[in-house]
Amino acid sequence: MISQQHHQLGPADPAGPPILQVRGLRKVFKIRSEGSRRTENLVAVDGVSFDLPPSGSLGIVGESGSGKTTVARIIAGLEQPSAGTVLVGGSPLARRRRRRRRRVQMVFQDPYSSLDPRQTILAGLDEVLRLHTKSGKSGRRARALELLHQVGLDERHENLRPRSLSGGQRQRVAIARALACGPEVLILDEAVSALDVSVQGQVLNLLAELRTQIQVAYLFVSHDLAVVQQVTDDTIVMHRGRVVEAGPTDAILTSPADDYTRRLLAAVPRPGWKPSRRADGG
Amino acid sequence: MRSVLRIIGTAAGTLLAASLVIYGALALAPGDPATELAGPRATPRLIAQIRHQYGLDRPLPVRYWSWLTGAVHGNFGISLQFRESVSALLAPRLPVTLELVAYASVIIFVFGLGLGLLPSLSARLNVLVTVTAGVGIAVPTFVAALVLVEVFALKLGWFPAVGTGTGFAGQVEHLTLPAFALAFSWAAYVAQISRASVREQQGREHVTTARGRGLPSPLVFRRHVLRNAAMPIVTVSGLTVAGLIAGSIVVETAFGIGGLGSLLVQSVSAKDNNVVLAISMILVVAFVLATTLSDLAHLALDPRIRASARS
Amino acid sequence: MSAPLLELDRLAVRLPVHGELSTVIHDASFEIAAGEALGLVGESGSGKSMTARAIMRLLPPRAEISGSVSYLGQSVPGFSRSALRDFRATQIAMIYQDPRAHINPVRTNGDFLLEAMLAQGVRPAAARERAVGLLAQVGIADGGRRLRQYPHQMSGGQLQRIMIAAALVTSPRLLLADEPTTALDVTTQAEVMAILGDLRVERGLALLFITHDLDLAAAVTDRMAVMYAGMIVEIGSSQTIHQDALHPYTVGLLRSRPKIGSRARIWVIPGRPVSAFEAGPGCVFAARCPYATGRCRTERPGLREVERQLVACHRAEELKGSVSFSAEAAISD
Amino acid sequence: MSLASVNLVTVEPASGRRRTRLDPALAGIGAVLVLLVLAAVLAPLIAPYSPDQGNILIANAPPSPAHLLGTDAVGRDIVSRLIYGARLSLLGPALIIALATTAGVTLAISAVWIGGWYDVVVSRVLDLLFAIPGLLVAIIAVAVLGTGLIAPVLALSLAYTPYIARVLRSVALRERRLAYIESVQLAGFSGWAICLRHLLPNVMPLIRAQATLAFGAALVDLAAISYLGLGVQPPTPEWGIMVSDGQASLLNGYPLESISAGFLIVVVVVLVNLLGDRFAIRAEEAG
């Protein structure tokens, strides 16, 4: 069973030990199903293991209910795993909030809720910088502007509130905020899925370019195979809580080994595409 | 089925907790009922004797338990001010309060719901209903009582200003002004809620779907607007009945009606705690009954709650 | 080609936005022949959903429309109340992006499927039989049981199938599908599209397929119209548009979606999509177009025929085949 | 990084931007309420007569230039009593709302943040309180603590706590799951900092709306307690007491005392409710 083993991904060892090591991750939710007295166990994540090298980029692909978002939330520390370990830089997630959290940051899907509506862009960045750096007020502002430039915004945006920004601009600010903590791992959970096509392209190119400039590893969670290809080196495909296939992104997209991956690829619309019916029940 | 049991269980728990709190609070109140009972010239011996006789020397939990077991059997002890059994005191008054509340409920149902649904017949009535309901809600029961007395009893002389009346017709005549005073702000509240929920449902996507399928408008209104708007209205009705019972205290005092409410006020002033306790508990039972019934009705109306109560 | 089933001629819609009427659709013209599938493609705010609502006469109160919508030669805005009800009940049906919001949550699936038939006087037993049959056609085998269940007991994919079945119970001739698969997973989307395709062929059903996904529209429609800021900027055969789009916006949109199997940097259209009332007096796309000239900013181009397609661009001929956008990541919307 | 195409960076006033404009209706309501509060505070300067001393010789006098609304059954000036009465009639509900809002906000926010069994217990207690109308709680409190301002104010504070806390809890629960709260959590801020700096300010519009609407209801309940003779005692000027005091005169054909005090209560409650509705609409727009 492929999902139970640990997937060696990426080049053998160019950049030292993996920054993120996930081993045997399992998450069980207790739910009470309809018409039944007992609580049932819903296994959302089952035996997920992978490594992410420093400055690497790993995609997690799957449909809704595949467990991909739960994996991301466990790694970020927003959920506790039922079993398994997450090592960041070789050590388990620290109990101390502040130390643990700055190492792993996350950008969420919905651009309309990812920023505090009452905070200006600069205040949001400044708050994070004040917690994590020792710089004074002017130093922090300089750093905040640097971050804004990095994500394609500038001084004109610093005093705006989120409601004056478009969806794409908000996701850029969310990325800047995450980077302000100086993370080693940046989790992007469907971070471009809610954007219009023309804006999605802008943010994808930004993410690809940021990787060449700063030392940060991406964990890119998405349902969209074409999008994953733009920003990742390696990919794992998840289905019903398990990893069904893992390997270099290009290889998975061009010659998928697993049946489910093939089905996923076949379902992507393209000219001449004939959608097929499978008695799966939806 | 399990959700029904859960709702009933919650209601029973609420009642028990409420009785404990009210009993405890009154027991801890300053003042000694035995001294009061014995009268001003009582000797310490007599007081001690009375204390023993009524079990006041026993520890609080024991007293609570014996009160509770008595209460379930309709025995609420002796009234200090009337020197008679509380149950006997309450027996003739309970129906009066019930009639008043029932009368007011009918008024609320007819006028409140009627007013609230008017705007769905003609959008032009929307402002009228909003303003009427908005002002109506702000009129306290005792102000409504006085205005009704001033206009309909004193100026027009259509109804008597005070008293209970005899015979069914006499009772209805005497209870009309009190019932309208009691119903006034609650009818306005129900009108406002039903107007708002009908309006909200009319803007829902599923109503657009129904209209887009070419269904006749009365059918869309009945099956998709009114049916869904009924759920918040039912919830509010439960609160309304609870509020009516509380309001009856004020109305009975204002009109000098001999019901439970006026007796409660009188007993609080007279520090007649057994009566206060008994009436409070009867009122709490009524509130819990009203909210429980509306919870059950809600359950029957909304399949999603039936499902989520299970999960 | 026979007379069109549906014809829109210079349809314009104005809606109250923040208290004042604002244009959301400018002069939209297209036609759909019987049995034809037309894609209506655009990003958010392009007015594609409003176009469908205008056809159904389901616009919000106080909306103003001008131009004409005609169905089999009759004016839809001119329909009397009863004619409109008849039109909606027997000729046209609509399915929506979010079936969970568009189906009454407190009524059973059976109520939803049957009510349209019962309102037309179909006997309950016959209506039930027909509903179960249709459920089977959309891939729900245990129809009898499903009829007794409530919408919240269904998955999103199942509910969209029920929506499709409910739209077809009265055998309409035209189906308006407003992003019916956007909320679904790709494998479920494939299945729902397959079902829709089969039913369409079987019944000779015409389809207006609204989507933001150009690739999907190209795959499942005969012709498509690309909308931007309330205007149709290009319309023609789906295949031709997908391969040789003429309007710079269409070209940019096609190339800003990454293609599986290619890691090449995608192109980026600068700025963000705008609504009709935010666009300037000239070409609605001028503010984002790298080829915009002074004329583009002042004079609004109308649809005109260029190489078998209709395109609303002053420079369509000279730019043909040479449109490209930068892949600059720093460009912010 | 090159910003060659910097001219394409747009800072447009995005659609749907709403500056907080001054709403004329809101300003009008606010002004009237402020005037009322001022009148209450400055009662000794404004009121033409003492509220307590009457002249029995002019009892139940009709309105005249000297006594604009006439006098009551013991010859006290009704206008002066209404002005002085505003003090307790407005102070009481203000105290109730201050206490109930403090308790309600603390309970709701802590329940949402801590969750688990604490949330269950808090919710149960709030449900229990919600099931019993404030008027009865206040009457029982008077039975225990005696008449006056303190017992009903404490009891009604308790009774209005769930009114604030229940709605707030459900909204705060939704807010807490939004991405921006989770991302400040990930940035390493403490629960305190997140609740005070992010969660609380974002649910503030709702708190304001609920508190304002509760004020009207508390005013009515407290006045009812006074009317029943269980609150502050005569001859203290208070609107509920005035309605009650005037009842005998009303039956004797002198309705002005009761009616004018009652009218004032209705006017204040209508204004406060209008204000609350505006706040509620704003809270909805913000959320």
Pick out the low-confidence regions of chain C.
none
- The residue-averaged pLDDT of chain C reads 91
CATH C-level category of the largest domain in chain A = Alpha Beta
The main sheet of chain A orders its strands as: 6-7-8-3-9-10
Query: Helical element count of chain C?
Result: 13
Low-confidence stretches of chain A: 1-5
Structural class of chain A: alpha/beta
Give the helix level of chain A as a range of percent: 25-40%
Number of strands of chain C: 12
**CATH architectural category of the largest domain in chain A:** 3-Layer(aba) Sandwich
Counting DSSP E segments of at least 2 residues, the number of strands of chain A comes to: 10
Largest sheet report of chain A:
6 strands, mixed
* Major sheet description of chain C: 8 strands, mixed
Going by helix content, strand content and strand pairing, the class of chain C is: alpha/beta
Radius of gyration of chain C: 21 Å
Strand ordering within the main sheet of chain C: 6-7-8-3-9-10-12-11
Count of individual helical segments of chain A: 9
Give the C-alpha Rg of chain A: 20 Å
Overall form of chain A: globular
**How would you sum up the global shape of chain C?**
globular
Structure, explained:
- The complex is a heterotetramer of chains A (282), B (311), C (333) and D (287).
- Chain A folds into 2 domains: 1-89 and 184-274, P-loop containing nucleotide triphosphate hydrolases (Rossmann fold), CATH 3.40.50; 96-183, Rossmann fold (3-Layer(aba) Sandwich).
- In chain A, the strands form 2 sheets. In chain A, strands 6-7-8-3-9-10 form a 6-stranded mixed beta sheet, with helices on both faces. Chain A has a 4-stranded antiparallel beta sheet with strand order 2-1-4-5.
- In chain A, α3 crosses α4 (137-150).
- Chain A is 33% helix and 24% strand.
- Chain A is globular and about 60 Å long.
- Chain A has 9 helices and 10 strands.
- With 311 residues, chain B is mostly helical.
- Chain B has 2 domains: 2-85, no CATH class; 94-258, MetI-like fold.
- Helices cover 79% and strands 0% of the residues of chain B.
- Chain B has 14 helices and no strands.
- Chain B starts with a helix and ends with a helix.
- The model of chain B has no long low-confidence stretch (mean pLDDT 88).
- In chain C, the strands form 2 sheets. Chain C has an 8-stranded mixed beta sheet with strand order 6-7-8-3-9-10-12-11, with helices on both faces. In chain C, strands 2-1-4-5 form a 4-stranded antiparallel beta sheet, covered by helices on one side.
- In chain C, α5 packs across α7 (156-168), α7 packs parallel to α8 (186-203) and α9 (214-220) runs antiparallel to α10 (238-244).
- Chain C has 13 helices and 12 strands.
- In chain C, 55% of the residues are buried.
- Chain C has a domain at 102-171.
- Chain C is globular, with a radius of gyration of 21 Å.
- Chain C is α/β, with parallel strands linked by helices.
- With 287 residues, chain D is mainly alpha-helical.
- Chain D has one domain: Orthogonal Bundle (MetI-like fold), CATH 1.10.3720.10.
- In chain D, 70% of the residues lie in helices and 0% in strands.
- The two termini of chain D are 37 Å apart.
- The model of chain D is unreliable at 1-19 (pLDDT under 50).
- The interface between A and B is small, with 6 and 4 residues.
